Every structure is written in C-alpha cells, then in structure tokens.
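Handover notes (outgoing to incoming on-call)

Open items:
1. SAM-dependent methyltransferase: sequence verified, structure written out, both below. Nothing else pending on this one.
2. Nothing else urgent.
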Amino acid sequence: MLETNSNYEYRYADNNAGHHHHYLFPSLLKLLSSVRQNDGKKIRVLDIGCGNGSLSSLIAKQGYEVVGIDDSGSGIAAANKSYPACKFIQANVYDIPYEDLGGDFDIVISAEVIEHLLYPRELIRSAKKCLKPNGSLILTTPYHGYIKNLILALTGKMEDHFTVLWDGGHIKFFSVKTLTTLLAEEEFTNFQFEFAGRFPYLWKSMLVIATF
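SAM-dependent methyltransferase structure tokens:
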C-alpha cells in the first residue's frame, strides 16, 4: 500500500462541478451509452477519483448505478452530503477496498485522474479487478499530440503548460499512442477514442473506452 499524507489532500470546499465537466460530459455520455446491458438491470459504474461526486451524480441522473471512490476526505464528505443517490467511499486508488464496493462493475471510469499519478499502471490494474468479464474502462486525460505541443513551443507557452510550480498538478502527459500502449500492455482491447474541448488537434482532453 502506498500511503498518502493527509497534509497534501486535495480539499473540496463545496459540491460544485469541475471546470472540465461541461466539455467532457457529452463525449463521456456517448461512450457510456455504447455499453449495453442485456439483463434489464441498471449498468453499474465505478468512478475512481470521483472528487466531490459531482460527475458521479451527473452519470447517475442518466440511469446508472454509481459508486465513487476518492482519497479526499473533504471530497467524500461533500459527495455523501450532496448526492444520496450514489454511494461514496473514501479510498486510495492504490488500495481500493474491493470488499466494500458491492460486487463487480460493468464500467469503470476515471476522469482527469491518471495524469496526476506516479504509477498510472496501478489505476489500470485496479480497474481490472473491479470489472465484470468483458467490462469497459473509460479514461479521460488532457490531450497531448505533436501539433499541440509544437504550437505550445512556438507560442512560448510550453513552460506554463508543463509547469512544475502547481502543487498536486499533472506529472504524466499522454498521447493517443502512449495511452493505447499502456492499456494494451494491461490486456485491454477494442479502443475507441473521443476528444473534447477546443479545436481539432488542439483538444483539451481525450477520452478512451476499452474492453477487458
């Protein structure tokens, strides 16, 4: 187990939606709706890194059964207070309490989380343990590609974009190729990418759904 010092917890003051939700959610909903359920039961979704639960709640309003986990005590407190339709558990992504989740999930999502992790592969492995056979993993993360990086360099914005001065900021930067490679190495298949925010090839984020 990798310990997280509570002094460096990401703290939530309220249940307000993240700034990225408005441009991510339409594409996320498109990927969620591509997963079909044949037995008439609600599709179960695990939201890893749910923060204050605002995105989990948006998903639940679409008819999904949602469980959210996050390491932030203030985030989980806000989520439990604001969104009783969902279940929330305080847990570290590296040490998920599988016995408390209520069974396996049809879909695991993790939105704008993997870029913050020293060990992103562990997020993928945790998701695998939570999925039903042929279950789907949906990841979102800031988009990085050659054209975008070139424009950042030419406009002098590279240091701002890849800043090391943001405590708790991004430490991993994925392209379509590297994210595909990571998922394939963990035995995921059937990749489908969507992109969100801004203009083509300057997208803010990319989303991928893959099957295990």
